[in-house]
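Dear U.,

Please find below the material for section 3 of the report. The protein was modelled together with fe (ii) ion; I have listed the sequence and SMILES used, followed by the predicted complex structure.
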Amino acid sequence: MSDFDAPDMNPLADLDEWEAFLKERYPVAREESTFRDYGDNVRPAVREFYRLNHRFQTLDFVLAKEREYLGLDHRQMGVWEAMEFLNTLVDESDPDTELSQIEHLMQTSEAIRRDGHPRWFILTGLIHDLGKILCLFGEPQWAVVGDTFPVGCRYSDKVVFPEFFQDNPDSRAPGLQTESGIYQAGGGLDQAHMSWGHDEYLYHVVKPYLPAPALAMIRYHSFYAAHREGAYTHLMNDADRDRMEWVRRFNPYDLYSKGHEPPNVAALRPYYEDLIAEYFPAKLAW
Ligand SMILES: [Fe+2]
Ligand SMILES: [Fe+2]
């Protein structure tokens, strides 16, 4: 297997490399002509990650993970507690390099706050990656991070490394590779099962508590084929087009807030504890 899921490895250790890859792949002013070059220059670990991701994210796999996790019966935790939980393994492994997960979350939310956005938007920045605790529940990286895409219909060639989909058994399943597959054209993204990962999971955890734009940002922030490349419009309805606008507004804060000073987590904690309490109960079902 790849180094992404070697059993003795800290499952979160590579997430920093992950963020670096994203930044490289989506520079602020991307040259259209060089976009496809990343296929040759990309780090081998990232290629290997997508080889696994595209091969194993079948419709059946996604349905099984939805059954396993969307009952939200794994743990009861407050939001701050979940942030600290997500931080544990990173802190143990390599505290001196790169940012911890908490620092990435707070840099994102602080950048949103600096720009004067509403409180729910700041909170969305703070929590957007908490679904990565799936790593701590034992899920391999390829089932937690990475770009997402709908399963159960034809793969767009706008998804990164589309050539790896040929290893996915769904690519030969009758009915799953028509343009809309098992879905209704124009029927909306709500009907679509997205490849399993931290976006979809967190969306279900926080769904009762946040406004629709926040939920869109959380659920689709890794759906680059749609919000960056404009693919999958045939599945969308008008509400989805609005949702993609919100995701596009959120995305730069996720990618480019790094590089500022690491946030002073202890000093900022009271502000964020108040913000969390404004929207969430003391414990959430995970
Ligand atoms: Fe994310
Ligand atoms: Fe993020």
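For the text of the report, you could mention the following: The chain has one domain: 15-285.

Regards,
Y.
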